[in-house]
Amino acid sequence: MEGAEAGVSVGSPVHDRAVPAGSPSSRVIVHVDLDCFYAQVEMISNPELKGKPLGVQQKYLVVTCNYEARELGVKKLMNVRDAKEKCPQLVLVNGEDLTRYREISYKVTELLEEFSPVVERLGFDENFVDLSEMVEKRLQQLPSDDLSALTVSGHVYNNQSINLHDVLHIKLLVGSQIAAEMREAMYNQLGLTGCAGVASNKLLAKLVSGIFKPNQQTVLLPESSQDLIHSLKHIKEMPGIGYKTAKRLEALGISSVHDLQTFSSKILEKELGISIAQRIQKLSFGEDNSPVTPSGPPQSFSEEDSLKKCSSEVEAKSKIQELLASLLKRVCQDGRKPHTIRLIIRRYSSEKHCSRESRQCSIPSHIIQKFGIGSYDVMTPMVDILMKLFRSMVNVKMPFHLTLLSVCFCNLKSLNTTKKGTIDYYLTPSLSTTSCSGKRSFKMKDTQMEDF
DNA sequence: TGGGGTTAT
DNA sequence: ATAACCC
Hints:
This protein is α+β, with helices and mostly antiparallel strands. It is built from 19 helices and 14 strands. The protein has helices at about 1-5, 15-20, 35-45, 65-70, 80-85, 100-115, 130-140, 165-190, 200-210, 225-230, 245-250, 255-260, 265-270, 275-285, 315-335, 365-370, 380-395, 425, 440-450, and strands at about 30-35, 55-60, 60-65, 80, 90-95, 120, 125-130, 155, 195-200, 215-220, 300-310, 335-345, 355-360, 400-415. The longest helix has 24 residues, at about 165-190. The radius of gyration is 25 Å and the shape is globular. The structure holds a DNA duplex.
């Protein structure tokens, strides 16, 4: 029954709405969430840290910490001074350089992609995987009447009992087994522990993954989804409802999930716009039809540094050079070439919610060509471009006070899709030179094969 | 609040 | 280019 529903409807849009949407083909989604990821990476790098309360520090904040530290009262995003006061034995490591975290983060995503290619990253430490197809295959290969041998892996939300005659229960149960295999693989191959949540959509999978917390997993059966969403004490805890939307909802007298469920749709649409209103009101019922969108390689690379005070052009230039140098290494390893560069600043302001300003421009093609090679200095012309962007935002003849500088490369294009068939393509240095440790793997090879 | 990311407008 | 969201 699922295969027939997957087809694209040929009806008019009007009919698509009137018809019950071709019935909601049931999905099995897993949300995988690593335990205090940065702290885990640090303990792998330096095993002597294991067993001690450990915090990862960025500037004056403890951005994350291990469970030993949490038991002693340290919280995420806690001020270093407060953390040291609460927990004088706290060991701190600097986590401002994200390189190792980023590398291991992508190893986790790649490991999950081996189970099913449909993996969506959320930050460095969370992934969604659509297990629907895998579950179908496993059920088809099951010896006919052997359902009674199936067992759930991990916890069942609410301790709800499983009905082996209910096909949705069976699918989710198989999903829980795959989730356990994923966590086993993460531990055996990468030494990482994490939680998993299995449910029929991303919202519910994410919410249920946090129910049993370090290194455990939970499956949500459909009959308990209302209990799960009503366990949220405030709508701000609903993924997809952020700070701004929560404030606007509160102004309307909406603070609980139940408030949002029962609020007038018409008024909500008028207040928030039809798009946000309809999306978040569906979320309040636990409904989320958003697909698991494969993340693939990153869309952008950026490096930023927050500063106490940057008030001269010379200071800015030297920071920008640092940021750019790191970015160039990353871009070189990636193998793709950025066609756009952006400079972002944050100006000091007493209490206004610190917003950022940015200016971007395309990178001249003669510079793009030079990205892979070491013989030509790409720093100098890029710094010149960035300083022009800088002066277009900051009047350097007037006093200024910046608290953040950031450089972003985006609009990344693969070598083999840009101007293929031109002489440039065959002469592109980074495919033949040794200056760049070509970290490109089979994905690039696939597209190259298609091209030839 | 750090140092990242994404999508929508 | 900004604003919202996520971690």
